[in-house]
Design brief:
alpha+beta, eight-stranded mixed β-sheet, two-stranded antiparallel sheet, globular, binds flavin-adenine dinucleotide, Acyl-CoA_dehydrogenase, FAD, oxidoreductase, oxidoreductase activity
């Protein structure tokens, strides 16, 4: 028997079963809603009604899909990063704005027992909605440059400032907001909406817009500091870093589904007496797309594996996020091209995906910031070339 290295790309029978059950749930319960989502959005309504999403999640919960990466002690399935990435790939096959419920932002686990009761558990249960606010009009990639201030006044902190591009900011019941707390520096505060912050939606080219948040003399009790005073930046990086591989994971599912659409269309669309699948120009777009999707898949799973091993996965996650975001944008562009004029219409979901996927190159660290991170890690020796399995 030849000696075998311990690299193993197979899934266990149980993992395959989970993947197949998710795939069949998405195909049977979620994909049939696609025409309704397109219709609603075309008419200016949210793609999915809140009660339709609630019902879907309840059905999913019955099948055991609840809190995919939530620890078991909080009622979750604790499936770990690789399975979470594989499930995200399955969900990404549909553009229906669906996610399994039962999850909360990773940094809420850093809360005190009381904070967990008030914020973490209700978020897991879907009773409260959170948002994460670090970006400001003058501080995006340069997140260390935030200006929102928190000033101590007795047992309270008074927050003043503005946040922008906050996902879910118009719907959230509370915000994890990052502010400069006097000489202590960046600190994260849990702030309920009824403590006084306001929000305004920002229209974007995507279907669900983020919001700007305004804090004007918002008084927050001392016990609402999440983690430690002055340690907010570390928490923010933990929030961004932990799930970075999930962004390309979902995009891989979308790209595969679209590529299949392009293949199916190329086999029936005729031009100049032949189906366009006969033309090399079309074949190369199909081939290049699959090569890029496969590469993105393994980079993403490698980053997820590192997270699961408790390793410092920041470098691998930056590589996976940069590559996956660029890949998805290239694939959707080719798929649109293969569909010709039809690809450009709102009759098909391709133009919708085209707009939605564009965001991937911007949020949670732009392409340029990922490149900067990757290059700096190599130049400073934090990451080395040529290593496999570490
Ligand atoms: C739909 C959407 C949802 C979002 N959700 C959230 C959220 O929930 N919470 C939150 O806090 N933020 C959120 N963001 C903000 C997002 O993270 C920022 O938009 C992103 O970090 C880029 O910041 P910026 O928009 O200020 O661009 P800038 O930082 O101003 O960048 C402008 C351009 O300059 C480049 N650039 C900047 N610095 C450098 C550099 N050092 N080297 C090379 N190039 C550089 C950038 O890559 C970009 O191309 C969201 C944004 C969008 C669009």
């Amino acid at each position: 028997m030849p000696w075998e290295a311990a690299v193993d790309f197979s899934l266990t029978p149980e993992e395959r079963q989970i993947r197949d059950t998710v795939r069949s749930f998405i195909e049977k319960e979620v994909m049939p809603l696609e025409p309704e989502v397109l219709r609603n959005e075309r008419e200016g309504r949210p793609g999915l009604d809140a009660d339709v999403l609630r019902d879907l999640r309840a059905k999913a919960r019955k099948s055991g899909f609840w809190g995919i990466n939530t620890p078991e002690e909080y009622g979750g399935a604790a499936l770990g990063p690789i399975m979470s990435a594989i499930i995200a790939m399955e969900i990404g096959r549909t553009f229906v704005p669906f996610s399994f419920g039962g999850s909360a932002d990773n940094i809420l686990y850093a809360g005190t027992d009381e904070q967990k009761q008030r914020y973490l558990i209700p978020t897991i249960e879907g009773e409260r909605r959170s948002c994460f606010a670090i970006t400001e009009p003058g501080a995006g990639s340069d997140a260390r440059n935030i200006r929102t201030r928190a000033t101590r006044d007795g047992a309270e902190w008074v927050i003043n400032g503005e946040k922008t591009f906050i996902t879910g900011g118009n719907e959230a019941d509370f915000v994890m907001v990052f502010a400069l707390a006097e000489e202590h520096g960046v600190t994260c505060f849990l702030v309920d909406r009824d403590m006084g912050w306001t929000s305004e939606p920002i229209p974007t080219m995507g279907q669900w817009g983020p919001a700007s948040l305004v804090f004007q003399d918002v008084r927050v009790p001392e016990e609402n500091i999440l983690g430690e005073l002055g340690k907010g930046f570390e928490l923010a990086m933990q929030w961004i870093g932990q799930g970075r591989y999930m962004i390309p994971a979902r995009a891989i599912g979308s790209s595969e589904r679209m590529l299949q659409m392009a293949i199916d269309y190329a086999k029936i669309r005729k031009s100049m007496g032949q189906t366009i699948s006969n033309y090399q120009a079309i074949q190369w777009m199909i081939a290049d797309s699959q090569v890029e999707i496969e590469a993105a898949k393994w980079l993403t799973l490698y980053a997820a594996w590192q997270v699961g091993q408790g390793m410092d996965a920041r470098h691998a996650s930056s590589i996976a996020k940069l590559n996956g975001a660029v890949m998805a944008n290239q694939v959707v562009d080719r798929v649109l091209q293969i569909h010709g004029g039809m690809g450009y219409t709102k009759e098909l979901p391709i133009e919708r995906w085209y707009r939605e996927l564009r965001l991937l190159r911007i949020f949670e660290g732009t392409d340029e910031i990922q490149r900067r991170t990757i290059a700096r890690n190599l130049i400073k020796g934090h990451a080395r070339l040529g290593l496999i399995g570490e």
